[in-house]
Amino acid sequence: MRIAFIDSGIGMLSTVAAVRAARPDADLVLSMDPDHMPWGSRAPEAIVGRVLDGARAALDAADAGREHAALDAIVVPCNTASVHGLASLRAAFEPRIPVVGTVPPIKPAAARGGPVAVWATVATSRSHYQQGLIEEFGQGVEIESVPCPGLAEAIESADPGAVEAAVDHAAGRTSPDAAAVVLGCTHYDLVQKAVSDALAGRAELYTAAEAVAAQTLRRLGSAPAPALAPTGTVTVLASGRPVALPEEALAYAPGQDLARALQG
């Protein structure tokens, strides 16, 4: 089983970790794009191009002259890239290779009752996409959007001071009555403890990583098998170039686990 992950940077780590926990025997290809990050500030058509290039690079890296597809699935563990690039990826690769996107977990958070706060990037907080999810799943539930300026960038650069400042800023803009906080950017998954601490543990956090991992296995017709030996390989690409795992990834537990897999 060989699975590619397409994102601009280390925001993919929580989803990669969830897939590896469910299937430690799977070979993983992490296709990042440091030469062109961040994607969120780019025009939609430019994001589509970056996502397609990332997928093609992953396919090239996985191809060992096989007759059939060298990838079994493509995962887009990024809300922005999923919004703009998923349709184009599916047109290019399905049904030969299933493509799985990421959706902020507003639906399960709203199902438990409100109030709910949705932490996301400034651009995503203003988007029709997020507003549409709130309107679709939040009927009868109070849901507020909380823009988090600079948080994804601080996490990407592994800057503890900047992370703390951005988290504190977002926490200060979050209603004290919020019973649930949706982490609407996959980068935020990497600092869940900092978020929980800033909120004094008063809100349950919702992330998409485990749901995306489960959907990936469903699309592959495979069951979770966490007890299998961790024999899966990890390949890292930087804008198509084979590289070591970025140093910034080592600041977070999922990155540290992947580093051990690379060493093995």
Automatic annotation (TrEMBL):
InterPro entries named in the record: Asp/Glu/hydantoin_racemase, Asp/Glu_race, Asp/Glu_racemase_AS_1
Example GO biological process: peptidoglycan biosynthetic process
SUPFAM superfamilies reported in the protein's UniProt record: Aspartate/glutamate racemase
Keywords from the named record: Isomerase
Enzyme class: isomerase
EC number: 5.1.1.3
Cross-referenced PANTHER family: GLUTAMATE RACEMASE
Record's protein name: Glutamate racemase
